[in-house]
Amino acid sequence: MRKLRTVKPDGRYLIYYGFGERADLPAISPLGETPPQAAEGVPAPQMRWNPVLRQWGVVASHRQERTFLPAEERCPFCPTRDPQRPTEIPAPDFDIVAFENRFPSFVSGLSFPAETEDELYRAQPARGVCEVVVYTPDHHASVAGLSVQQVRNLVEVWADRSQELGALESVRYVFIFENRGEAVGVTLHHPHGQIYAFPYVPPAVERELASARAHEERTGRCLFCHILEREVAGGARLVLEGRHTLAMVPFYARWPYEVHVFPRRHVTSLPELSEEERMDLARALKVLAGKYDNLFGFPFPYVMVVHQRPTDGADHGYYHLHFEFYPPHRTADRLKYLAGVELGAGTFLLDATPEEKARELREAPPHSV
Amino acid sequence: MRKLRTVKPDGRYLIYYGFGERADLPAISPLGETPPQAAEGVPAPQMRWNPVLRQWGVVASHRQERTFLPAEERCPFCPTRDPQRPTEIPAPDFDIVAFENRFPSFVSGLSFPAETEDELYRAQPARGVCEVVVYTPDHHASVAGLSVQQVRNLVEVWADRSQELGALESVRYVFIFENRGEAVGVTLHHPHGQIYAFPYVPPAVERELASARAHEERTGRCLFCHILEREVAGGARLVLEGRHTLAMVPFYARWPYEVHVFPRRHVTSLPELSEEERMDLARALKVLAGKYDNLFGFPFPYVMVVHQRPTDGADHGYYHLHFEFYPPHRTADRLKYLAGVELGAGTFLLDATPEEKARELREAPPHSV
Hints:
homodimer; alpha+beta; eleven-stranded antiparallel beta sheet; 6 helices
């Protein structure tokens, strides 16, 4: 893997990742050919403390203006093939790129003073980094259609971003995710994911950490290793078993087609995965994506998130890296909506049994046609 | 207020609430004219414990079959005007009715054994009650269009349901809510809300209770009274100020047009509200609903939830009753989606400032045309 770091005219960085034949270099347009973009005058996002739920939220009002479902020829994540029509990526070809989000919820180097700082309400600059990761130059590609090697390269990039962003003083959590499909609000179709480098450990992760910590203290073992052991023994909720990787619909799924993907070995973060484990994980992600797309014969929308250890300096050896997929469909033509019971009470209602859904996914063929 | 309790042919109860002129009685069709419905063979819903998030979820696979956007003449919540076409409500007219949900997530009197009960996974029958509350016989009505007196009658019914359901041995929390509009997944348009009588205190409420308890221990006062004081003093986020009721966009809003409605007086549940407070609350709810509908000139979708004290026997005197509205729109034609950051990290991103949105709502006229 080779990395080439460059800076866009508006000051945002962009990193080319090259693999295999292309590992030497992409052919980059000289800086300055891309006209400056709107990012410079971006209003600073603000973190606000919710004293009732005791968690942070982010007010980023400029995001209201973000690019919304442009025509394919105006896709900002395609390579720049016509210098008259520069995209976000000023090169005619590339393997994978990561760059700062033009509409970030967290921004590095903010220094304006907090608006309020009292016992009830707290607000502070939302310091952190938001990146976009473009998986491939091919606008019409999908994870299911990429080669295993290409997905493995993506795992490599995620591991590298985890390490680089996690090393920043202000970053306590590197959160990798992908929103796919208009049903989850996606505004750009080119295959891509995002990374939020948070200045705090986000509450959903905090909850998992607390449970895993408590389980280890009580039983002496990893909560997730324990779950994996049960799932392998039972089998009813397994979706796929790789040599180093397991995928299952959890016993406690919140979404009908929810799948969690785990490395079998107890590792806490992406950078710890061995070469073989990365390859096997890539295979599992590709196969799962193919199963999803073949379930109903259309590109299956989902939210994918990576849960790994925080980078806050504390010891989180009890934690176990995994991926979680939340697809919004409950049938081919019906979505699961979060409404009163989920949003106002915090209890998820499942219109299906996890065992049924796991069987459907086991039986779905892996590759897109 | 008069109550008349009756039982439907399939065994579910239905309660007529009558007010004013109608307080004597609705003209009820004799039982048995309504053909038995499908509810008898309903598979029992199951609670499953999530050991990672340490919270309950509910598996209710029969809900997949629930009625989906029927044509108006087949609306199950309209009065039965033609005995050949019985609806859920076997009377030609009514004020307000509450009855057991045909597709419940919690069912009373379940007694099948738990599927598993070990240190990792727990499952148990989902014991509780799910009710539908039909606000009016008028299929095309809306809360904004009801009279203040009618909304006050609804508050009365909610208070009565809170008391009656809360008194059940198995019920630890009476959760009143309304999902409105297809954007939040509503499958029936007739104005109605729902009630879930939970066998546990739901996690979103649990969190608020913990914060309120901690705040009282630390400062000697109610967290919410403290917030109200600040909002009245500041004013920038107030949406309306009634004599006994306040509505505001919270400093820590998670949805652009989120509004919380509080009684000014420190009360912990609906039954504690005085007659004057109920009337004032009804006025506030009607005015807010009208503002919502006039914001963009169409019936504004929202999730409305009531947060009140649990009915678990413990002392929750530190808590403060309120309503929360979560509308999914961020503009007239764009929705706010929950995706990776909200669902996988637990941090809400707001594309707007609460102060801006409060001003828009203050300026929106209160009544639907």
